[in-house]
Amino acid sequence: MFDEYLKIKTSIMERLAKLENIAASDRVKTAARLISEKLTAGVFSLVVVGQFKRGKTTFINALLGENLLPAAIIPLTSIITILRYGDKLQITVFFANGTEKEIVRDDLPLYITEKFNPKNEKGVDRVEIAYTSQYLKNGVQIIDTPGIGSVFEHNTKTTYEYLPQADACIFLVSADPPITRVELDFLRDLKNLVPKTFFVQSKIDMVSIADRDESLSFSRNIIEKEANYSNVEIFSLSGKEALEGKLDNDNRKVGKSGLTIFERSLEKFLIDEKGDVMLKSSAEKAVGLINEEMLLLELEEKSLRLPLNELENRIVVFKNFIRESGQEKIDSERLLAAEVKDLQKQILEEDLEKLKIEKTKRLLEEVGEFANTHANESNAKFAELMGGFLDLRIKEIFNIWRVGEEKILKKHLEEIFKRFLNRMNKILEQIIRSSTDIFGISYRQIRMQETLPSEIEFRFLTMDEPSILSITLDLARRALPKMLGHKLIVKEAKEKAEMLIDRHCGKARYDFSMRLDKLMRNYHTLMTETIDTIQNNVLKALEAGIVSKQDVALESESLEKRVRDKINILKGTKEFLQKLVA
């Protein structure tokens, strides 16, 4: 799978290796290597999600063509399981305490299933499986998640926490029963957390064609109308038949199962959408590096030809221009800092205030509703349940809000950084034009393309003291009538609810602001250091002519030929890459 994608990626990496080998500039060498490493490490995270018992594990096994993951009649998977390519089967368990352990295949159920690891009592963070499937060879990483909506609530929570890391999701519904209210609620959240979702109707071998089509139409209409997805395409397939077909090398059976059609759609997405963006971006950055290296070589070639006095005079003129452009960099830095400060005040603080008002009101209502549904509990049990309820709701409120706010801030920050990048590129353009005009060579556009780091995250702890309702628990221990005890506990819970929301809003404000400031400083440093490095490389190229004229042992004609040969090689490399981005 993904052969064309791999072919293009390999071609780009070969050109990057050639550029790294031929470049004289350390900056160009390093940048070319980093682009290549990013392509090599590029992982497409495909997360499989859905309600329990929808056939997720069988579906993944069908993709791999191997009974690798355990499946059972009861809700089974309880731990995030990541499958990636490896030259041999290797299963590693990563624990929450930072340790890890390699296990054999037969022991896998002991760590990832609810039966053998109830409520994750073994403290497993995740399990990673390296496997020699061709499906995983080209950077695809498949993640099996616990089913949502089972009696094990922690499984649903585990799946929610992993979703922001997904490049795409495969959401499974079954032909019988069709989509449920639990799945619909999950899809509403999924739409805001994952950029691309594929819909699969599984277990079609269990129903008639008429029932399958009726179920398919029902699920599609509900997803579009109730979860606000548009133009939903649902792939009907039988994971069981697809797996049997692959195990028996029966392509006809695999095709009949419906899996092949889904695989083609997934491949098209990777190449035409996600993969195309990454490959073209890499090629564009490589072209920019080639332009930079060719500029330096052409300046060096010119410096070798100019008389020494004339060369020295032109270098003085260029250095004067560089000094004059220094103030523009300082002004750009001040504008960047001011815009980031405005972002904190106009977006972050306003959003936090809105969150505080809305969620405090709603949480107080929920405390009352929770109290009504647990009116028969003893005082001690009621206090314990109320404390757990508040702890869970605070985490849910702020974790969901964080994901949404992160997207909002990232969007605004990208716009701010783009404006700063444009200002810095104008400074760079002036420097390049100055050097080409002073030394009489063709202008070559060099633009910095660095954008907002993809790993931007705003995380803050929502943990509180173990006794979240310490005073209430003391009250509960007294021999108070249940009605009075519950009333006092509810009063205390509402006070705690207001306090906790206010406290976590403060945490979020501080941590988000610190992160924004850090990103701003790092981005500014990256831009200014890049310009300074290019300036220094230009001067180094020009001063190569002075060195050659002062060293009688150096042959000018031989040096010029070496430079010209490099330029010709880079021209051919540039032409190839430009065809990819055309």
Helix content: 55-70%
> What amount of the residues lies in strands?
5-15%
Multimer state: single chain
Give the low-pLDDT segments: 149-156, 463-469
Number of strands: 9
The shape is globular
Class based on secondary structure composition and strand pairing = alpha/beta
Number of helices: 16
The whole-angstrom Rg is: 30 Å
| Overall domain count | 3
| Order of secondary-structure elements | HHEHEEEHEHEHEHEHEHHHHHHHH
Give a short account of the largest sheet. 9 strands, mixed
The order of strands across the largest sheet is: 4-3-5-2-6-1-7-8-9
Nearest-integer average pLDDT: 82
CA distance, first residue to last residue = 25 Å
Summarize the structure.
With 582 residues, the protein is α/β, with parallel strands linked by helices.
Describe this structure in words.
The protein is an alpha/beta fold. It has three domains: 1-41 and 278-305 and 556-582, no CATH class; 44-257, P-loop containing nucleotide triphosphate hydrolases (Rossmann fold, 3-Layer(aba) Sandwich), CATH 3.40.50.300; 307-550, no CATH class. It is 66% helix and 9% strand. It contains 16 helices and nine strands. It has helices at residues 3-22, 26-41, 56-64, 109-112, 134-137, 153-162, 181-193, 209-226, 239-247, 251-257, 259-305, 308-373, 379-439, 470-477, 482-550, 556-581, and strands at residues 44-50, 81-85, 90-95, 100-103, 124-131, 140-144, 168-174, 197-202, 234-236. It has a nine-stranded mixed beta sheet with strand order 4-3-5-2-6-1-7-8-9, sandwiched between helices. β7 (168-174), α7 and β8 form a beta-alpha-beta unit. α13 (379-439) packs antiparallel against α14 and α13 runs parallel beside α15 (482-550). It is globular and about 100 Å long. It starts with a helix and ends with a helix. 34% of the residues are buried.
